[in-house]
Amino acid sequence: MGRRKMPDLYRAPFPLYAVKVDRKSGLVITAGGGGASKTGIKNGVHFLGLELVGGQHSATLVHSHDTDTLATMNMALGDEVIAAGQDGNCSLMRIRQRAPKDGRKAAAKDGPSQEQGGARRRGGGRGDKSGAGDVDEMKNETLNFSVEQIGSVQTDLNPKDPLQKCVRFSADLKLLLAGGTDGHIRVWEYPDLKAKFDFKAHEGEIEDLDITPDKKHMVTVGRDFSCSVWRGDQLAMGLCWHDNMPHITEKMYRYQSCRFGKVPDQKDVLRLFTVQIPHKRDRKPPPCYLTKWDGSSFLPLLTKPCGNEVISCLDVSESGTFIGLGTVTGSVAIHIAFSLQRLYYVQESHGIVVTDLAFLPESGKSQAVKGDNEVALISVAVDSRCQMHTVPNRRSFPLWLVLFLCAFMVVGVLLLLQHLFPGFM
Fold first, then answer.
1. Which of 404 and 292 is assigned the larger pLDDT?
2. Is the pLDDT reported for residue 354 higher than 60?
3. What does the longest C-alpha to C-alpha distance in the chain come to?
4. Domain 8-98+144-397 has CATH 2.60.40.3390
């Protein structure tokens, strides 16, 4: 599957940098903005209701939250709390469902961002009076939602341009982890926000991080060519993906992303997936690589090239079956986690760099929305577009039917031999 026009699930009035799917409500949460620059581009977090109508996915803006002069560049989602990376800080915002009687106050408080959502839905400018009814309808739809800031921590202390690059909650929501441009990993106990760790993990920027469900190991990726495994704030080991690839020298590639994933049908077994991209861009670009690691010994299990477009983001599906990849040229791909084989690919689906990906959860409210698809992946990009990528269920014969056909063929062959050679049996 190559270059083709992908329909937009939703188009925001600002560049999009992050996307998450709330398992409990089924909402798609996407965020971004123009930052503090006075260009007229706003900053916000948009909440989208996802539907499947006639086999086609559609999204409706149900609430918009204005973040003033702060663009959300990355975020994590845990139990109705958004951890949003805004400049050098992590802002914690709680999503609440309000009773209808609180709606008028909500409309007054969040009015500008809701007007913005109404303008986007009706497809015209704010001066279009014909859309006034749609604005009222939009406000009514947002009455059941509120976004309340409940805390903030400084996650990057770079004296020049502090910027949080990545953030994660631990699986049990007891820890909040973040990394930024100063190379430090900072960990807080959640929800108290009591500082737990603060250590220098890499020389230069932190690109990505993740933590095992049992919280025993944390993996960090830096621009200093290293991918490190930590026990608390102590370095356990450094990873090397190209030990058996002599044609690749030490600084030809750097790690870009890391993510833990489950192994289907194997409880408590983990895999780590990392992406390696060329350090220098040549006229004839070399391939990027995707590596699968054992999640306990951290030994590499399999490495495969994943195309010549530079990978910008990575996500792993809830069951650990699929890997999603986005590129700086706007392409989106889905790989099978077991074999790292590419299953789905759309070249330049977006007009510019894909900034984040999110698989639809495989249970909960999103299950019905996924429809007759084996997997559904949402992508967002700097082009303000949010898109849905799906892979239809691959038809397969049930095991009992295969066994029945095999038995039928054996019986048929025996009867044929008996007919051709009487006394054979």
1. 292
2. yes
3. 94
4. no
